[in-house]
Amino acid sequence: MTTENQSVAIEVRALDKQFGSIHAVRNVSFSVSHGEVLGFLGPNGAGKSTTMKMITGFLEPTAGTVIVNGNDVITHPIEVKSAIGYLPEGAPSYGEMTVLSFLRFIAEIRGFEGSEMQHRIDEVVRKVNLESVLHQSIETLSKGFKRRVGIAQTIIHDPDVLIMDEPTDGLDPNQKHEVRSLIKEMAEKKAIVISTHILEEVDAICTRAIIIAAGDLLFDGTPGELRAQSDKHDIDDAFRIITTQHYEQQGEVTRS
């Protein structure tokens, strides 16, 4: 919920995406304000990554609109992309590059040079704890370190909107704690959307949660309101109840 001190960063209006006969996202609408951390939840194939790609401009919607900081993602793509830090699923990068050369490359793309570039790199290396692997090629890194490199490139330009697909994927418990602490630290001034399968993350860092299944938006509320959907007051149980009921209803519609 937006307060007087929060401004809307992302507006998703009646978003729809079809791939041939596959209806991946169906008439989804929501908004995210600066100061919010939105947990974007759903089973595999629910449409989460597709929605994130449309918000960031990597996919064009079949119908609907995405507005980021007042700019339409279709008509003002450069302004939208400059405002967003995007961590895609798998965090693709150039494996033959060292961590340092990759971060320099990303900083250059973002328009930094000289001492400002070095400052940006130094800051993200410290925040994400990459000092020990700076001169290693990315392809030689563990999955956890590759994920941290992905997070570093996401925040190097200090964007005020972060879209992060499974940010703690592949991290050990200590690394997960570090990344969650970093997200909470950044959350005060940024609008952050996190796709995750780890429901404990919703309790740990999110101020709000959305559940999507089969392309449909099923729930939008606080983590406490989500837990209240379960008699056990358990967030995993609430997720199962909401998604299972939806798929059962879809099955009934299909058979009728």
Notes on the structure:
With 256 residues, this protein is of the alpha/beta class. The chain has one domain: Rossmann fold. Helix content is 40%, strand content 25%. The chain is built from 9 helices and 10 strands. It has helices spanning 48-56, 77-83, 99-109, 114-128, 143-155, 173-186, 199-205, 223-227, 235-255, and strands spanning 8-19, 22-33, 37-41, 63-68, 71-72, 84-87, 161-165, 191-195, 208-213, 216-221. The strands form 2 sheets. It has a 6-stranded mixed sheet, with helices on both faces. α3 (99-109) crosses α4. The radius of gyration is 19 Å and the shape is globular. Mean pLDDT is 91; it is low at 1-5 and 252-256.
List the helices and strands and how they pair.
Layout: E1 8-19, E2 22-33, E3 37-41, H1 48-56, E4 63-68, E5 71-72, H2 77-83, E6 84-87, H3 99-109, H4 114-128, H5 143-155, E7 161-165, H6 173-186, E8 191-195, H7 199-205, E9 208-213, E10 216-221, H8 223-227, H9 235-255
Parallel strand pairs: 3-8, 3-9, 6-7, 7-8
Antiparallel strand pairs: 1-2, 1-4, 4-5, 9-10
Compact description:
The chain is an alpha/beta fold and 256 residues long. The chain has helices at 48-56, 77-83, 99-109, 114-128, 143-155, 173-186, 199-205, 223-227, 235-255, and strands at residues 8-19, 22-33, 37-41, 63-68, 71-72, 84-87, 161-165, 191-195, 208-213, 216-221.
